[in-house]
Amino acid sequence: MSKTPMMACGHAANATSRGEPCCVICHGDPKSQQIVNEPNLVDRLAKCSYGDTIVKSSVNLAFFKYKGPDSNPSKNMCKHCDYALKAHWSQWKYKLAMKRDWFAHKNMQDNETRTEHMPDKDAMIQYLEAKMIYMKKDSDRPWMFGEHKGQVVTKIHEIAIEYVKGPLPSGRGHDFEPHGSFEYDEYYCGCHGWD
Predict the structure, then answer these.
(1) How confident is the model at residue 2 (pLDDT cuts 50, 70, 90)?
(2) Spatial distance between the Cα atoms of 95 and 165, rounded to a whole number of angstroms
């Protein structure tokens, strides 16, 4: 059996995108499409994420995720609470103001107000700038089904950052400390079926 490539997100490839291996679990993260060298799996065991089955670690296990030394989870999950590093960052409240069409409603003023975890204000601004580019790029597309099929869903005419407030407390109550190597890697044994 040929080996399944490892992806930079930490999972073995479990799907393809445009004919190339990728990770469907982490879809949207650029790391889900970057192939990396296989980690050293000698003496590593994998435990089913939904059961108690333990087997020898292998990239050919279904939905395999490496959690050993120097893995993403070992560096980005907290030793104290098992939450990701991002959950320990401060929260930033932001508001995007936009003028857009929404189906038949033309030039309506619309706002998006949310909070997001980011390490600092500069990172928050960069995130919002990238988000606005994506939102503009994604606008002006037709609806795919139903009574509105073929109609343009939304067309963004203007979008800008109205404010970024923070930092607000992260809510974790402790500083982040990397977990380090986990005892087991993860995979799915099929205990809950395959459909």
Answers:
(1) low
(2) 9
Q: Which residues contact residue 72 at a Cβ distance below 8 angstroms, ignoring those fewer than 6 apart?
A: 9, 10
Residue in the block written with tokens 């974790």: 172
| Pair 177, 78: CB distance under 8 Å | yes
Burial of 85 (0-12, 13-18, 19+ CB in 10 A): middle
Closest C-alpha among 117, 122, 125 to residue 171: 117
pLDDT tens digits along 116-131: 989 999 999 999 999 9
Task: Kindly report the average pLDDT of the chain as a whole number.
Answer: 91
Cα–Cα distance, 60 to 6 (Å, whole number): 10
- Inter-residue contact 16 to 32 (CB < 8 Å): no
Identify the sign of the CA torsion 58, 64, 69, 72: positive
pLDDT tens for each residue of 15-64: 999 899 999 999 888 999 999 999 999 999 999 999 899 999 999 999 99
The end-to-end CA distance of the chain, in Å, is 24
Has residue 186 got a pLDDT over 80?
yes
H/E element, 99 = strand 91-102
Phi-psi region of 33 (alpha: psi -120 to 50; beta: other; left: phi over 0): alpha
User: What's the CA gap between 54 and 183, in Å, rounded?
Assistant: 11
